[in-house]
């Protein structure tokens, strides 16, 4: 049995208040100052992860910082807090540690953390890419859409997840637009894709126009606020939101019934898993970044895996196959009554089909 740790952090003040109810009575400014001083916190033990060929147990450890603090405080201070959380997970028995949400974004995307701890580290980004792309492919199949004919837009394309999605999809797609704030880096990525595949992709730092033309959107920005709203999207669009916090406003699901929002990085865990902690998903499900850490522990692969700004496409394929081996599966499409398998979209799929436009 392998043992892992996973580092989490609150995405909003209310997340922090659920753990510390007294905070509900305190001013937000005071809470944020308090969070800067707090040490990492043991959150829960994770049990019951089991497949025919492996098993794992683990723990959640929290860094009590909000996304805006992760990005706004001095990088050295934030990395020090993450390292302390990783060491606490190690002391709780972890043989590999995963970095969740903005802990995987700060600084050099895990490289400094890996250098500062004596157990291996992963961001989980390879499995996140694999599950996001598989979700998009299945959604296309269910709605009668050919991926190679679709207008694809990737928001946050300069990040490790976005750029890897772009590099892989460029082998299948004919029409792609990359969106990010740093246009120079975008141009470098576009040139790399041209060299690798011959595909000429468009680049921009303004998402509004491309989103209105997009058939498929993969969004994985590092924004602390929602950036995609109902008026931005084309009728029948498939939107894969991989970002945490989410890039897509909750208003899209409420007001745009002609748009298919899919969870790009949610999987069902094999066995009778108990997280002993509610992070917003139905029982037995977790985010792909968490799952990658579990898979490595189940395989006994105690090595640095997905770290740094450039992911290896071979590792994306490898971790997907290992996930299949151990029975990790895509959660499906999230709706008001839970998750529905892509193959069971049924009559509702017609409203997302290109033929319906």
Structure description:
With about 350 residues, this protein is an alpha/beta fold. The protein contains 12 helices and 17 strands. The protein has helices at about 15-20, 30-35, 65-70, 75-90, 110-115, 125-140, 160-170, 185-195, 210-215, 250-255, 290-300, 315-325; strands spanning about 1-10, 40-50, 55-60, 95-100, 120, 150-155, 175-180, 200-205, 215-220, 240, 260-265, 265-270, 270-275, 285, 330, 335, 340.
Report helical residue fraction. 25-40%
Shape: globular
Annotation field: number of helices: 12
The domain tally reads 2
Q: How many E-type strands?
A: 17
Uncertain segments are none
Pairing-aware structural class of the strands and helices?
alpha/beta
What distance separates the N and C termini?
Answer: 52 Å
Give a brief rundown of this model.
With 357 residues, the chain is of the alpha/beta class. Helices cover 35% and strands 21% of the residues. The protein is globular.
Features:
357 residues; alpha/beta; Rossmann fold; 2 domains; 6-stranded mixed beta sheet; 6-stranded parallel beta sheet; 12 helices; 17 strands; 35% helix; 21% strand; globular
Secondary-structure topology with pairs:
Elements: E1 2-8, H1 13-19, H2 28-37, E2 41-50, E3 55-62, H3 67-72, H4 75-91, E4 96-99, H5 111-116, E5 121-122, H6 125-142, E6 151-155, H7 160-169, E7 175-179, H8 183-197, E8 202-204, H9 208-213, E9 216-219, E10 238-241, H10 250-255, E11 260-263, E12 266-268, E13 271-274, E14 285-287, H11 288-299, H12 313-325, E15 329-330, E16 333-335, E17 338-340
Parallel strand pairs: 1-3, 1-4, 4-5, 6-7, 6-9, 7-8, 9-10, 10-11
Antiparallel strand pairs: 2-3, 2-13, 12-14, 12-15, 16-17
Helix pairs in contact: 6-7, 6-11, 6-12
